[in-house]
Predict the 3D structure of the following.
Amino acid sequence: MPPAESTPTIWLDLTDLEGWDGPVTGIQRVSVEHLRRFFATFVADGSSPCARGFVFRSGPDRFEPARFEMVDGRPHVVAADSASVDSVPPSIGRRVLGRAPALERFVRRALHGARARRTRTPGLDRAEEPTTPRSPFTPGDTVVVLGGNWLCAGWAEQVAHVRRSLDIRLVHVVHDLVPCLAPQWAAPGGAALQGPYLRTVFGVADLVIADSEHTAHDVDQFVVQERVTRPAGSSTVVVRLATERAVVDGEPVPPHGVDPDESFVLGVGTLEIRKNHHLL
């Protein structure tokens, strides 16, 4: 009898959530909601293909299986051996940053330049490393990235190496390219991190999912501008967020104090200085 074919696995990246102790905002908040629903669908009812999580580790570089859990309404990454990756008490720095968003943003901006320099340091160019990192991926599997790992040195180069070495597929969700295309609206040094990351990812991704037509246009602009050669047969599709029927059904109710027959500006999103709400 011929050997039974194994069911391809969808691997969802959990790297940017590993050990995170601060509030979940922005892209992470979207990623967490997608992960929660995805695992609830493909794990709870045993649907095919199966879904699993993974994280990237360095020293030596490797990809390892992990699980996603919601504990008291917050995301937790659990290692494959069932020992919680988040069980280690957070450092003093993480405890402080988790309770001081302004300080957290300041420290992250300070780290941008240092991490960018580290990735360009001779001898640390991971793209030149000849060995394929250890991973649980097998031919036919699909790796899905819902957020982004440009702050994780080596992630993009190593996933690209695995993508080229194994017959797997890479799907990457893109929310915006602000640090690269509008650096004046992002933290200093952001382009030096996101730019090389996206060049590498777009060069190996079989499917790029943009959250809007505008973002899809930005992806195309970046690919042309940076002269990225995408894999044969690769494509970009638009999947809009927050467009379920449960959201749009029913009669619209005008907000209090707003006359729908008059001109007005609707702003949706978090309140941040960089969004310049004072102008509105």
Helices lie at 26-42, 92-98, 101-119, 155-165, 178-181, 190-202, 213-225, 245-248.
